[in-house]
Design a protein that fits this description.
The protein is an alpha/beta fold and 180 residues long. 31% of the residues lie in helices and 19% in strands. It is globular, with a radius of gyration of 20 Å. 22% of the residues are buried.
Length: 180
C-alpha cells in the first residue's frame, strides 16, 4: 500500500504546479542565427549566456520605422554539450562554419505559463539542461536552465538547503577531491 503524502510534500507539489516557469528565468538568453559563424556562437557561449545559445529566426515587426521590439522564433539550441559532442574533438571544424551545422534543431520548448512541475518532468525525461521558453505565439520569451531551478529551490527552502549534508549511497564514497 502506498504511503500517504505528508502536508509538506503536498505543499511542495502545489508550489511546483502553481509556479510559472517564465518567472524563474534569471538571464536574458543569448541568441544567434543559423548562419552565425561557429566562432561567434562560441564567444556568446563563453560570455554570460547561461550555458546555451538559442538559435532564432526573425518573426514579427522589424521593418524600418517599426516601434515594436523585434521578436524571435527559436529554431535551434547550441549548448556546451553540443560543443563537446560535435566540435571539441573534431580538428577539421572551422570557426567560420555555420552554427546550424552544430546546433540541435527544433528543440523542445515550453510555454512561459507552464508550471514548474511540467518543466521538471520534461527536463528529467529528456535529459535537458536548458529549455527555450515561448509565449502563446511561439516566440522566444526566455530560457529556463537547471541552474534557474536550483536557485529557485534554494530561495524557497533556504534553511533546508543550507543545513542538509549531501547523502551518499552506502556504496558511494569520494576517493579524492576533484582534480587530484
Amino acid at each position: 500500500m502506498a504511503a500517504s503524502k505528508t502536508s509538506g510534500q503536498k505543499q511542495i507539489e502545489e508550489v511546483f504546479r502553481k509556479e510559472k516557469i517564465g518567472r524563474l528565468c534569471r538571464t536574458e538568453p543569448a541568441i544567434a542565427f543559423p548562419e552565425t559563424p561557429l566562432s561567434d556562437a562560441l564567444e556568446r557561449l563563453r560570455g554570460d549566456s547561461g550555458g546555451c545559445v538559442i538559435v532564432v529566426e526573425a518573426a514579427g515587426p522589424h521593418g524600418e520605422g517599426s516601434s515594436e521590439k523585434r521578436r524571435w522564433k527559436p529554431v535551434g539550441i547550441f549548448t556546451e554539450r553540443d560543443y563537446l559532442d560535435k566540435v571539441a574533438l573534431e580538428p577539421s571544424v572551422e570557426g567560420n562554419a555555420a552554427l546550424e551545422e552544430f546546433m540541435t534543431a527544433n528543440p523542445k520548448v515550453l510555454l512561459q505559463e507552464e508550471g514548474l512541475d511540467t518543466a521538471l518532468q520534461l527536463m528529467t525525461k529528456g535529459g535537458y539542461r536548458h529549455l527555450p521558453l515561448v509565449d502563446g505565439e511561439g516566440l522566444l520569451s526566455g530560457v529556463l536552465s537547471v541552474r534557474d531551478i536550483i536557485f529557485y529551490l534554494a530561495e524557497f527552502f533556504p534553511i533546508e538547503v543550507m543545513n542538509l549534508p549531501p547523502k551518499l549511497d552506502r556504496n558511494q564514497s569520494f576517493a579524492s577531491r576533484e582534480g587530484e
